[in-house]
Amino acid sequence: MKEIGLGLLASMFFAVTFVLNRSMELAGGSWVWSSSLRFLFMVPFLLIIVLFRKNLKEVLNEMKKQPLPWLVWSFVGFVLFYAPITYAAAYGPGWLIAGTWQLTIVAGVLLGPIFFEKIQTKHGLMKVRHKLQWKALFISLLILLGVMLIQMQQANQVPIQMVIFGVLPVIIAAFAYPLGNRKMMELCGGRLDTFQRVFGMTIASLPFWFLISVYGIVKVGAPSSDQVLQSFIVAICSGVIATTLFFIATDKTRENQGKLAAVEATQSAQIIFVVIGEVVLLSSPLPNGLAVGGLLLIILGIFIHSFITKKTKVNRKQKLIVAAKRKEQHI
Questions:
Q1: CA atoms lying within 13 Å on the CB side of residue 206
Q2: pLDDT over threshold 50, residue 329
Q3: Domain of 229, in residue numbers
Protein backbone atom coordinates (compact mmCIF):
# COMPACT_ATOMS: atom_id res chain seq x y z
CA MET A 1 0.00 0.00 0.00
CA LYS A 2 1.46 3.31 -1.15
CA GLU A 3 0.20 5.19 1.91
CA ILE A 4 2.13 2.80 4.20
CA GLY A 5 5.31 3.62 2.27
CA LEU A 6 4.67 7.37 2.67
CA GLY A 7 4.11 6.85 6.40
CA LEU A 8 7.38 4.93 6.78
CA LEU A 9 9.29 7.60 4.87
CA ALA A 10 7.72 10.25 7.10
CA SER A 11 8.76 8.31 10.21
CA MET A 12 12.39 8.39 9.09
CA PHE A 13 12.32 12.18 8.83
CA PHE A 14 10.32 12.47 12.08
CA ALA A 15 13.11 10.56 13.87
CA VAL A 16 15.38 13.57 13.34
CA THR A 17 13.22 15.39 15.92
CA PHE A 18 13.99 13.01 18.78
CA VAL A 19 17.72 12.72 18.07
CA LEU A 20 18.37 16.44 17.60
CA ASN A 21 16.07 17.52 20.44
CA ARG A 22 18.08 15.32 22.78
CA SER A 23 21.31 16.62 21.27
CA MET A 24 20.22 20.23 21.89
CA GLU A 25 19.28 19.47 25.50
CA LEU A 26 22.62 17.78 26.17
CA ALA A 27 24.32 20.89 24.77
CA GLY A 28 22.41 23.12 27.20
CA GLY A 29 19.66 24.32 24.85
CA SER A 30 16.14 24.99 26.14
CA TRP A 31 13.01 23.12 25.07
CA VAL A 32 11.37 26.53 24.57
CA TRP A 33 13.55 27.29 21.54
CA SER A 34 13.62 23.70 20.29
CA SER A 35 9.84 23.82 19.95
CA SER A 36 9.10 27.41 18.84
CA LEU A 37 11.99 27.77 16.36
CA ARG A 38 10.90 24.69 14.45
CA PHE A 39 7.50 26.19 13.61
CA LEU A 40 8.83 29.69 13.03
CA PHE A 41 11.29 28.26 10.49
CA MET A 42 8.51 26.25 8.81
CA VAL A 43 6.48 29.32 7.83
CA PRO A 44 8.61 30.72 4.94
CA PHE A 45 9.14 27.27 3.37
CA LEU A 46 5.45 26.38 3.47
CA LEU A 47 4.51 29.85 2.23
CA ILE A 48 6.80 29.46 -0.81
CA ILE A 49 5.26 26.04 -1.58
CA VAL A 50 1.68 27.34 -1.29
CA LEU A 51 2.46 30.46 -3.35
CA PHE A 52 4.17 28.36 -6.02
CA ARG A 53 1.04 26.18 -6.22
CA LYS A 54 -1.09 29.36 -6.42
CA ASN A 55 -3.59 28.35 -3.76
CA LEU A 56 -2.88 30.70 -0.85
CA LYS A 57 -6.25 32.44 -1.22
CA GLU A 58 -8.19 29.24 -0.51
CA VAL A 59 -6.30 28.71 2.77
CA LEU A 60 -6.97 32.25 3.98
CA ASN A 61 -10.66 32.00 3.04
CA GLU A 62 -11.07 28.74 4.95
CA MET A 63 -9.37 30.22 8.01
CA LYS A 64 -11.57 33.34 7.89
CA LYS A 65 -14.73 31.21 7.80
CA GLN A 66 -13.93 29.36 11.05
CA PRO A 67 -11.06 31.12 12.87
CA LEU A 68 -11.75 29.66 16.33
CA PRO A 69 -11.76 25.97 15.27
CA TRP A 70 -8.56 26.61 13.30
CA LEU A 71 -6.90 28.10 16.38
CA VAL A 72 -8.13 25.37 18.72
CA TRP A 73 -7.26 22.33 16.62
CA SER A 74 -3.98 23.79 15.39
CA PHE A 75 -3.08 24.34 19.05
CA VAL A 76 -3.99 20.73 19.84
CA GLY A 77 -2.35 19.22 16.75
CA PHE A 78 0.88 21.27 16.77
CA VAL A 79 1.48 23.07 20.09
CA LEU A 80 0.06 20.47 22.47
CA PHE A 81 1.92 17.86 20.45
CA TYR A 82 5.37 19.39 20.01
CA ALA A 83 5.92 21.50 23.14
CA PRO A 84 5.53 18.46 25.49
CA ILE A 85 7.89 16.38 23.32
CA THR A 86 10.66 18.98 23.42
CA TYR A 87 10.07 19.51 27.15
CA ALA A 88 10.39 15.77 27.77
CA ALA A 89 13.75 15.69 25.92
CA ALA A 90 15.30 17.43 28.95
CA TYR A 91 14.44 14.46 31.16
CA GLY A 92 15.05 11.40 29.04
CA PRO A 93 17.06 9.99 26.13
CA GLY A 94 15.67 9.93 22.61
CA TRP A 95 14.84 6.22 22.78
CA LEU A 96 12.60 6.78 25.83
CA ILE A 97 10.76 9.71 24.25
CA ALA A 98 10.41 8.04 20.85
CA GLY A 99 9.30 4.79 22.50
CA THR A 100 6.63 6.46 24.63
CA TRP A 101 5.51 8.45 21.60
CA GLN A 102 4.41 5.19 19.98
CA LEU A 103 1.31 5.34 22.18
CA THR A 104 0.00 7.52 19.36
CA ILE A 105 -0.67 4.41 17.26
CA VAL A 106 -3.06 3.13 19.92
CA ALA A 107 -4.45 6.62 20.53
CA GLY A 108 -5.28 6.95 16.84
CA VAL A 109 -7.35 3.75 16.92
CA LEU A 110 -9.11 4.67 20.18
CA LEU A 111 -10.06 8.11 18.83
CA GLY A 112 -11.91 6.61 15.84
CA PRO A 113 -15.37 6.29 17.50
CA ILE A 114 -15.56 10.02 18.34
CA PHE A 115 -15.72 10.82 14.60
CA PHE A 116 -18.67 10.51 12.23
CA GLU A 117 -19.11 9.92 8.51
CA LYS A 118 -21.89 11.46 6.43
CA ILE A 119 -24.00 8.98 4.44
CA GLN A 120 -26.64 9.92 1.85
CA THR A 121 -30.03 8.30 2.62
CA LYS A 122 -33.59 8.91 1.41
CA HIS A 123 -34.02 11.35 4.29
CA GLY A 124 -30.89 13.25 3.31
CA LEU A 125 -27.40 13.22 4.82
CA MET A 126 -27.06 11.24 8.02
CA LYS A 127 -24.10 11.02 10.38
CA VAL A 128 -22.89 7.52 11.26
CA ARG A 129 -20.32 7.07 14.02
CA HIS A 130 -17.12 5.20 13.15
CA LYS A 131 -16.73 1.91 14.96
CA LEU A 132 -13.66 0.88 16.93
CA GLN A 133 -11.30 -1.03 14.62
CA TRP A 134 -10.51 -4.05 16.78
CA LYS A 135 -8.09 -5.63 14.28
CA ALA A 136 -6.17 -2.37 13.96
CA LEU A 137 -6.12 -2.00 17.76
CA PHE A 138 -4.76 -5.52 18.24
CA ILE A 139 -1.99 -5.03 15.65
CA SER A 140 -1.16 -1.61 17.13
CA LEU A 141 -0.81 -3.22 20.57
CA LEU A 142 1.52 -5.81 19.01
CA ILE A 143 3.70 -2.99 17.69
CA LEU A 144 3.56 -1.33 21.11
CA LEU A 145 4.81 -4.58 22.67
CA GLY A 146 7.81 -4.41 20.35
CA VAL A 147 8.46 -0.85 21.48
CA MET A 148 8.33 -1.95 25.13
CA LEU A 149 10.89 -4.68 24.45
CA ILE A 150 13.26 -2.08 23.04
CA GLN A 151 12.84 0.13 26.09
CA MET A 152 13.45 -2.74 28.52
CA GLN A 153 17.14 -2.58 27.57
CA GLN A 154 17.59 0.49 29.75
CA ALA A 155 14.38 0.45 31.78
CA ASN A 156 16.18 -0.44 35.01
CA GLN A 157 18.28 2.73 34.67
CA VAL A 158 15.30 5.10 34.41
CA PRO A 159 14.64 7.07 37.65
CA ILE A 160 11.10 8.01 38.71
CA GLN A 161 11.70 11.71 37.90
CA MET A 162 12.53 10.76 34.32
CA VAL A 163 9.33 8.73 34.08
CA ILE A 164 7.16 11.59 35.35
CA PHE A 165 8.71 14.45 33.36
CA GLY A 166 9.98 12.43 30.41
CA VAL A 167 6.97 10.19 29.83
CA LEU A 168 3.76 11.96 30.93
CA PRO A 169 4.21 14.97 28.58
CA VAL A 170 4.75 12.56 25.68
CA ILE A 171 1.54 10.69 26.54
CA ILE A 172 -0.34 14.00 26.21
CA ALA A 173 1.39 14.64 22.86
CA ALA A 174 0.58 11.12 21.65
CA PHE A 175 -3.16 11.80 21.88
CA ALA A 176 -3.01 15.46 20.83
CA TYR A 177 -1.31 14.83 17.47
CA PRO A 178 -3.83 12.39 15.90
CA LEU A 179 -6.76 14.28 17.48
CA GLY A 180 -5.66 17.62 16.04
CA ASN A 181 -4.83 16.08 12.66
CA ARG A 182 -8.17 14.29 12.33
CA LYS A 183 -10.21 17.25 13.55
CA MET A 184 -8.52 19.48 10.98
CA MET A 185 -9.19 16.94 8.21
CA GLU A 186 -12.83 16.94 9.31
CA LEU A 187 -12.91 20.75 9.41
CA CYS A 188 -11.35 21.13 5.94
CA GLY A 189 -13.59 18.45 4.43
CA GLY A 190 -11.23 17.82 1.50
CA ARG A 191 -11.37 21.45 0.35
CA LEU A 192 -7.66 22.01 1.05
CA ASP A 193 -4.70 19.89 -0.01
CA THR A 194 -2.01 18.73 2.41
CA PHE A 195 0.34 21.67 1.86
CA GLN A 196 -2.48 24.15 2.40
CA ARG A 197 -3.62 22.43 5.58
CA VAL A 198 -0.12 22.21 7.09
CA PHE A 199 0.53 25.86 6.20
CA GLY A 200 -2.82 26.95 7.67
CA MET A 201 -2.24 25.01 10.89
CA THR A 202 1.27 26.46 11.20
CA ILE A 203 -0.04 30.02 10.77
CA ALA A 204 -2.89 29.39 13.24
CA SER A 205 -0.42 28.07 15.83
CA LEU A 206 1.96 31.07 15.51
CA PRO A 207 0.37 33.16 18.32
CA PHE A 208 1.14 30.34 20.77
CA TRP A 209 4.73 29.97 19.51
CA PHE A 210 5.27 33.72 19.83
CA LEU A 211 4.11 33.55 23.45
CA ILE A 212 6.47 30.64 24.12
CA SER A 213 9.31 32.59 22.47
CA VAL A 214 8.65 35.62 24.71
CA TYR A 215 8.75 33.31 27.72
CA GLY A 216 12.06 31.91 26.42
CA ILE A 217 13.66 35.35 26.06
CA VAL A 218 12.62 36.30 29.60
CA LYS A 219 13.55 33.00 31.29
CA VAL A 220 16.53 31.55 29.40
CA GLY A 221 17.68 34.25 26.99
CA ALA A 222 18.31 33.95 23.26
CA PRO A 223 19.12 30.54 21.73
CA SER A 224 22.68 29.62 20.78
CA SER A 225 23.72 29.53 17.12
CA ASP A 226 24.09 25.75 17.38
CA GLN A 227 20.51 25.35 18.63
CA VAL A 228 19.24 27.65 15.87
CA LEU A 229 20.98 25.49 13.25
CA GLN A 230 19.71 22.20 14.68
CA SER A 231 16.19 23.61 15.03
CA PHE A 232 16.38 24.67 11.37
CA ILE A 233 17.31 21.10 10.38
CA VAL A 234 14.41 19.73 12.45
CA ALA A 235 12.05 22.26 10.82
CA ILE A 236 13.02 21.08 7.31
CA CYS A 237 13.22 17.33 7.98
CA SER A 238 10.41 16.90 10.47
CA GLY A 239 8.27 20.02 10.18
CA VAL A 240 8.09 20.32 6.40
CA ILE A 241 9.08 16.98 4.81
CA ALA A 242 7.81 14.48 7.42
CA THR A 243 4.62 16.34 8.34
CA THR A 244 3.70 16.82 4.67
CA LEU A 245 4.34 13.16 3.79
CA PHE A 246 2.38 11.96 6.83
CA PHE A 247 -0.55 14.29 6.17
CA ILE A 248 -0.66 13.21 2.51
CA ALA A 249 -0.90 9.59 3.67
CA THR A 250 -3.62 10.34 6.24
CA ASP A 251 -5.55 12.47 3.75
CA LYS A 252 -5.61 9.57 1.29
CA THR A 253 -6.96 7.20 3.96
CA ARG A 254 -9.22 9.54 5.97
CA GLU A 255 -12.41 7.80 4.76
CA ASN A 256 -11.25 4.39 6.05
CA GLN A 257 -10.49 4.13 9.76
CA GLY A 258 -8.66 0.80 9.34
CA LYS A 259 -6.28 2.14 6.69
CA LEU A 260 -5.88 5.38 8.63
CA ALA A 261 -4.86 3.38 11.70
CA ALA A 262 -2.34 1.46 9.57
CA VAL A 263 -0.78 4.69 8.31
CA GLU A 264 -0.58 6.06 11.85
CA ALA A 265 1.01 2.80 12.97
CA THR A 266 3.93 3.34 10.57
CA GLN A 267 5.14 6.03 12.97
CA SER A 268 6.34 3.23 15.25
CA ALA A 269 9.24 2.82 12.81
CA GLN A 270 10.58 6.10 14.20
CA ILE A 271 12.12 4.29 17.14
CA ILE A 272 14.23 2.16 14.79
CA PHE A 273 15.62 5.29 13.12
CA VAL A 274 16.07 6.98 16.52
CA VAL A 275 18.10 4.05 17.87
CA ILE A 276 20.33 4.16 14.78
CA GLY A 277 20.67 7.94 14.98
CA GLU A 278 21.57 7.93 18.68
CA VAL A 279 24.13 5.16 18.21
CA VAL A 280 25.80 7.01 15.33
CA LEU A 281 25.53 10.63 16.50
CA LEU A 282 25.29 10.47 20.30
CA SER A 283 27.33 7.29 20.95
CA SER A 284 24.43 5.52 22.66
CA PRO A 285 24.81 1.76 23.34
CA LEU A 286 23.72 -0.69 20.66
CA PRO A 287 20.42 -2.55 21.23
CA ASN A 288 20.76 -5.97 22.90
CA GLY A 289 19.04 -9.22 21.93
CA LEU A 290 15.74 -8.26 23.55
CA ALA A 291 15.69 -4.88 21.80
CA VAL A 292 16.45 -6.53 18.45
CA GLY A 293 13.44 -8.78 19.06
CA GLY A 294 11.38 -5.66 19.66
CA LEU A 295 12.55 -4.13 16.39
CA LEU A 296 11.53 -7.29 14.53
CA LEU A 297 8.13 -7.22 16.24
CA ILE A 298 7.59 -3.63 15.10
CA ILE A 299 8.48 -4.52 11.52
CA LEU A 300 6.14 -7.54 11.68
CA GLY A 301 3.32 -5.38 13.03
CA ILE A 302 3.70 -2.82 10.25
CA PHE A 303 3.74 -5.63 7.67
CA ILE A 304 0.54 -7.15 9.11
CA HIS A 305 -1.13 -3.74 9.17
CA SER A 306 -0.23 -3.24 5.52
CA PHE A 307 -1.39 -6.75 4.56
CA ILE A 308 -4.71 -6.52 6.44
CA THR A 309 -5.65 -3.09 5.11
CA LYS A 310 -4.76 -4.09 1.56
CA LYS A 311 -6.68 -7.37 1.78
CA THR A 312 -9.71 -5.98 3.58
CA LYS A 313 -11.20 -3.82 0.89
CA VAL A 314 -14.55 -4.65 2.47
CA ASN A 315 -17.71 -2.99 1.34
CA ARG A 316 -17.31 -0.26 3.88
CA LYS A 317 -19.76 2.03 2.18
CA GLN A 318 -22.44 -0.67 2.18
CA LYS A 319 -21.88 -1.36 5.88
CA LEU A 320 -22.25 2.33 6.68
CA ILE A 321 -25.42 2.57 4.59
CA VAL A 322 -26.88 -0.42 6.47
CA ALA A 323 -25.97 1.28 9.74
CA ALA A 324 -27.62 4.50 8.54
CA LYS A 325 -30.81 2.62 7.59
CA ARG A 326 -30.95 0.99 11.03
CA LYS A 327 -30.55 4.42 12.56
CA GLU A 328 -33.40 5.71 10.36
CA GLN A 329 -35.71 3.00 11.67
CA HIS A 330 -35.27 4.33 15.20
CA ILE A 331 -36.05 7.95 14.21
A1: 11
A2: no
A3: 2-329
